[in-house]
Design brief:
The protein is an alpha+beta fold. It is about 50% helix and about 15% strand.
Length: about 170
């Protein structure tokens, strides 16, 4: 096995171990139940946060603080898109991101939102970076906190919501 293959195998093993550890912890926590309102990050949300902050670091920007309450709101937005079968920045349930933040009593001075529906959070992040508007949110020095929310559809595709605030 060459070095590249060993590195890929080690990464796959780490992801598998992390996923199974997360599943074991989730199963032992009766408050989890796989529900989108859980306060902890899912493995996919953690990956999304790591990718986001890694991209920011490549451009010399400070990492964004992953805010648990903002993650809860982002998770609700992703689940809302899944449940109500739409894909848009304006929710028929909550309105735009600013309206949603106000409805949930979240204080902010600036807000932005990225949404994606892709096979994986990795592909979603790559798509965000290739889009000027999404890229602007990711690389903005105006934001200090982020919420990440993932919902998975019946085909295994992810709805990823990133909510940026200051």
């Amino acid at each position: 096995m060459n070095a590249k293959a060993r590195k890929a195998a080690a990464f796959l093993l780490a992801v598998t171990l992390t996923s199974s550890a997360s599943a074991s912890l989730a199963a032992s926590d009766s408050s989890f139940a796989g529900h989108y309102t859980t306060a902890s990050l899912s493995a996919q949300e953690q990956t999304a946060g790591n990718l986001l902050n890694s991209d920011r670091a490549r451009y010399g920007l400070a990492p964004l603080v992953i805010d648990p309450e903002l993650c809860r709101i982002a998770r609700i937005k992703s689940q809302d898109m899944l449940n109500n079968q739409y894909f848009a920045h304006t929710s028929p349930t909550y309105g735009d991101v600013r309206s949603m933040l106000r409805q949930f009593g979240y204080a902010y001075t600036a807000a932005g939102e990225n949404i994606a529906h892709h096979a994986t959070v990795e592909k979603a992040q790559a798509a965000f970076l290739s889009s000027p508007g999404h890229r602007k949110n990711i690389l903005s020095s105006a934001y200090t906190r982020v919420g990440l929310g993932v919902a998975v559809d019946a085909k295994g595709y992810v709805y990823l919501t990133q909510i940026f605030v200051r």
